[in-house]
Inverse folding.
């Protein structure tokens, strides 16, 4: 029961900002809906369907992304995400009788989603770039060498003595990450 509650709470924390943004767009846009609960259910179904279909297209786009340079592949990812989300929303609107959304509002809604996912995609690319730069760090190289024969605590102690200019918190983070892998 506790883990189920935690999972629901975590999902709510992740989805709530998106629901608030979409709620504002629907409030400002030309939208008619029978009940607030129906509108929330429509949005949650849109998120779930869009997520499931985007997972497939994301894999295809990542595979094709290697053929293009980074900026072009990011733009292609955004365009594909926009088209997939718009098609999901148009398809859902065909079968949902409790809510009526104008085409302009659909485009704004999908554009905001595309922008958010594009920024998340950019963020993951920059995180990967920082991990690649970190692999050339002498602390990482030394930690890898020490972890072959030493336990993590001894490794942190030796690295702290060898690299006194690095904060111990960074060394602990590096050793923990390397030891976990």
């Amino acid at each position: 029961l506790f883990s189920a509650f935690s999972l629901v709470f975590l999902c709510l924390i992740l989805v709530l900002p998106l629901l608030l943004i979409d709620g504002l767009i629907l409030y400002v846009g030309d939208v008619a809906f029978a009940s607030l609960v129906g509108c929330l259910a429509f949005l949650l179904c849109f998120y779930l369907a869009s997520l499931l279909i985007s997972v497939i297209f994301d894999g295809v786009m990542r595979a094709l992304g290697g053929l293009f340079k980074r900026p072009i592949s990011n733009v292609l990812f955004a365009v594909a995400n926009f088209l997939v989300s718009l098609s999901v929303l148009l398809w859902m609107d065909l079968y949902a009788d409790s809510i009526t959304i104008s085409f302009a509002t659909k485009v704004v809604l999908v554009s905001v989603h595309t922008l958010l996912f594009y920024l998340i995609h950019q963020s993951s690319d920059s995180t990967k770039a920082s991990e690649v730069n970190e692999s050339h760090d002498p602390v990482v190289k030394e930690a890898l060498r020490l972890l072959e024969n030493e336990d993590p605590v001894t490794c942190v102690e030796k690295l702290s003595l060898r690299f006194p200019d690095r904060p111990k918190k960074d060394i602990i983070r590096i050793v923990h990450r390397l030891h976990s892998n």
DSSP finds seven helices and two strands in the chain. Residues 103-134 form the longest helix (32 residues). The mean pLDDT is 81. Helices lie at 2-28, 36-65, 70-95, 103-134, 138-147, 152-162, 168-180.
